[in-house]
Amino acid sequence: MRRALLIAILLLLLAPAALAQGDITVTQNTYQADFPLKIVFRLAASSSSPINQVTLRYRIVGDVASNKVPIADLSPGPAITAEWTWDMRKAYYPPGIEVEYWWETQNEAGSELKTEHVTFVYEDSRYTWSHLSQDNLHLYWYRGGQELGQELFDQMVSAAAKLQQDVGLTALKPIKIYVYGSYEDLHGALEEQAKEWTGGVSFSKRGLILIGISPSNKDWGKRAIAHELSHSIVHQATDNPLGGLPTWLDEGLAMYAEGPMEPEYKAVLDEAIRNNQLISLRALSASFPTDPGQAHLSYAESISVFSFMLERYGKDKVSQLLLVFKRGVHYDDALQEVLGVNTEGLEAQWHQWLGVSVSATPVSGQTPGVPVHTPGPGDSGSSARCLCCGAPVGLVALGALALALLLARGLLVASAA
Ligand SMILES: [Zn+2]
């Protein structure tokens, strides 16, 4: 399926006459995207007066700032060609981003010409992608045939419908899931630092999710799709510069979107209840533990407490709570405002619902602040999220934590299958 030798050449030929302004005429304006290596921009222009300045401007759609590249090796003259290569190995961007660019030119007589803005999607053209979409939901895949793609897309749509119906959340902006046909193919699309342990990566700010799903790994893949879609939809609904959600709420919602709690999580939860070893909800508001067993329990508790909250308080209160978090309100203040309890109060109600009277002990091995957001060098500001932990994780910060969480959720085994 991989077509290593295939390089996508995307050409845009602009009608020269339409771009003439003053004395400068653009005769060719092209780009050539070669994921994951580079994008080459080329311009040819002519003028009766020598063209002596050419500048390329480009930006990632969604980012405010644009980049300015004066073409330093330009040979001024009545007919010029200019070329600039964006080395994507130095500045990683995931497939699916939209790039906008335009050229600015000037001749010795002082005439200027700015080309129209061109926008294109930076695709991973090494594969022939199929595409299904509905409203803001997009799924791209290339392996497993129409049947697998349809099944994965149906899962995406039904997970979104579940979130809409049960907590009132919808995808406000496009969310694209790129399903790579194997763990290895996925890793060929990630930056170096993210390759080692990752079964998938979500760039929430950009609404992009990359997951490796082989046909034999479909069941895991369907859960992963629902889980990551939930993180993206929640991110769109609650994103603000002041603060995020408690981790138990973000993860609990994502696990809820996957479907009923899996038996192994139920077993882990029951055992912790029996042994009086539940992790406190306060501890689960921050980063999840690195220890695989404790991480597993953290997910089990998160879906349990979320399910309790939904049952006890109902859809309207839960969606109201999420909207309050959009204001960047402190966790306890948000819970107090909407549910009338703080973290410990909610925990006490949840414990009662579980039918146990336990005093939660702080989890050992907690490493506060480990999954900090450390933007990658080429994607500053993007919220890369670990496929399994959901908390903002800089790609360069993936490592032991991600490994522990992947092991905890069986993702490494599953995704390598
Ligand atoms: Zn998650």
Essential attributes:
single chain; 417 residues; alpha+beta; Immunoglobulin-like; Glutaredoxin; 2 domains; 7-stranded antiparallel sheet; 6-stranded mixed sheet; 13 strands; 36% helix; elongated; disordered N terminus; disordered C terminus; binds zinc ion
- What structural category characterises the helix and strand content? alpha+beta
Number of strands: 13
Which blocks of ≥5 consecutive residues have pLDDT under 50?
1-21, 364-408, 410-417
Strand share of the residues?
15-25%
Would you write up a description of this structure?
With 417 residues, the protein is an alpha+beta fold. It is built from twelve helices and 13 strands. Helix 4 crosses helix 5 and helix 6 (263-274) packs across helix 8 (292-326). The strands form two sheets. Strands 1, 2, 3, 4, 5, 6 and 7 form a seven-stranded antiparallel beta sheet that branches. The protein has helices at residues 16-19, 145-167, 183-187, 218-238, 247-258, 263-274, 281-284, 292-326, 331-339, 343-354, 400-408, 411-416; strands at residues 24-34, 38-60, 67-70, 77-87, 98-107, 112-114, 118-121, 130-134, 137-141, 175-180, 200-203, 208-212, 384-386. It folds into two domains: 16-121, Immunoglobulin-like, CATH 2.60.40.10; 130-416, 3-Layer(aba) Sandwich (Glutaredoxin). The model is unreliable at 1-21, 364-408 and 410-417 (pLDDT under 50). The radius of gyration is 25 Å and the shape is elongated. A hairpin with a 2-residue loop joins strand 8 (130-134) and strand 9 (137-141). It binds zinc ion. The site of zinc ion has 7 residues, from helix 4 and helix 5.
